[in-house]
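Continuing the series of single-chain predictions for the mutant panel. This is the parent chain; the variants come on the following pages.
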Amino acid sequence: MAGEKGRGGNSGTRRRPGLTGDRTDHRPVYVIGGGPGGLAVAAALRGRGVRAVILERSDAVGDSWRRHYDRLRLHTTRRLSALPGLAMPRSFGRWVSRDDMVRYLEKYAEFHELEIVTGVEVTRVETAGADWLLHATGGRRMTGRAVVVATGYNHTPRLPDWPGGDAYTGELLHAAEYRSPAPYRDRDVLVVGVGNTGAEIAVDLTEGGAARVRLAVRTPPHIVRRSTAGWPAQRSAVLVRRLPTRLVDGVSRIQARLLLPDLSAHGLPRPRKGLYSRVREGAIPVQDAGLIDAVRRGRVEPVAALESFDADTAVLADGSRITPDTVIAATGYRRALEGMIGHLGVLDARGRPVVHGGRTPKQAPGLYFTGFTNPISGTLRELGRDAHRIAKALARG
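Parent structure:
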């Protein structure tokens, strides 16, 4: 497994140089989180001669990727998804699978000889003079010259507090618990939420033999083809990032009418607000991985938003009542940073860091963040760019 050289096993007790007792010597940069963002930052720092120690709460790098559903493939291309300093193999194909992504992250840690300590969860970060003091599981305390928080955008599943939810007699789970359609064969399933995850799970269920699949939609999404005539949507997203919102909205509206069918008659009307206007509000377009065809064929049935539960019944926003066997909530995640850094005044009203990349908060110099945005141009691409900016800033310091 990649990174064994720097791991402490499940308990995180094997000591690396500089990890003595419960304090550190040599003032390293601590990177919290062993996902793509944390690995990229550590590699960029190492390339500039800055010692970085990754602290990962699980027993392996890329833990969140290991727990994704089986059919997951990147919606960004292989070439634009590689982290700095190591290309993805051509054998992975254009749209990289979950398992290949995990293999890549393991290889990345090994290739860059990253210093990783697993089984250690940081619970609180605070200033200690010119340094930073990290409190972690097992009573550990670690002191470093800077901290990079890379625990990820999708950290803690968010399950809405629907009225009647506690008494619902059917099966209710968050999309984070979904792995494959096998347990739902011949069952009636309601998927709540029409982001990329909800859309793809709905399609997966129909292909896996679910008896009926409905998709609860509060706000109709913008749907884009993952690739058109060989040109990936991601490249278009990179090109338009700095263009005026009204221009991008207009062009995307014309493009949708030319390239995509109108699904209004099937319960999925075109959005009223422009694509890039929605992006500015935090809503990423849904990349079509079979949803359009499934809706047109009636295999996925869009319905109104879920409002509440009544015993075995799901009550929808239009007043209709349905009785699915299973409800899968693709309702997003929380960053869950409040306990660790909320006291530092570096989070906005939605619990997100006020800065990212090479900038640090004015009241907390030396504290960096990566992976807490959801860019239209692709998260993995932006993680690599953040890594270079953070490494450059810390190398100067």
